[in-house]
Amino acid sequence: MTAVALRQIAKRYDIYQRPIDRLKELMWRNRKSYHREFWALRDIDLEFERGLTTALIGPNGSGKSTMLQIIAGVVQPTLGQMHIAGRVTAILELGAGFQSDYTGRENVILNGMILGIGKDEMLERLDEIADFADIGDFFDQPVKTYSSGMVVRLAFATAITVDPDILLVDEALAVGDVAFQVKCFDKIDALQKAGKTIILVTHSMDAVKSHCHQAVLLNGGKVMAKGKQDKVVPMYLDLMERADAVAAKVFTAPAAV
Asked: Which residues, in sequence order, are bridge partners of residue 168?
């Protein structure tokens, strides 16, 4: 059964060279353009099957994070349609969704309510969340006092404890210490056994091989390949090797006289 279906999804951003150009465009009522278009995603047709863990891999700027943001509902696509079957929780860019002046405890309750979970139910989950995050007394301190590792701990603990059907993780675990990463991947393995759908953005091919059922390779906002890791990971490595070779030639090219 399909947990997430993306149909002809595309996302365009309008890039303005100067802030005043946006104002000029408004004054012209869009009859004159002062921006250039950047398509972060184009023509995305993908299905994520329930119970599978999929890695989104690709070079920086290939559209991985944008795709997760669209699935999470944080960003609206410019074109296309999406179907989601189940409750989605997401760990996106560091600290996304947290109110910096609120304590960890308050943020946990707020995040649960945003997901449609009542305050009483979230209060029952607080001890479990605090125990997994393991940030001690900082749980009752404002998030703005947290280190990046503490933010990741709280975000992950909140996301996995609200019983998601679909878990989205965007490279956040790379910030935590090794012991916490192991703890998180153990939890991901448990979620897999429980039949949850997980979509993971990562640059760690070891994580892809160890914890994912399949991978999707993105480049330039388009899907280049989807399938088993042993098929897709070598394509990613070859893509990165060729990009490194091009960069090396540019770097070592003799300066013009």
From this structure: 90, 199
CB 17: neighbour CB atoms within 10 A? Answer: 9
Q: Is the pLDDT of residue 145 over 80?
A: yes
- For residue 251, the cross-strand partners are none
Tell me the C-alpha distance between 221 and 199, whole Å.
17
Given the candidates 3.90.226.10, 3.20.20.80, 3.40.50.300, 3.40.640.10, the CATH classification of the domain at 2-22+36-242 is 3.40.50.300
Backbone angles phi, psi at 62, to 5 degrees: -85, -10
Label residue 95 by pLDDT band (50, 70, 90). low
Quick one: pLDDT at residue 252?
Answer: 65
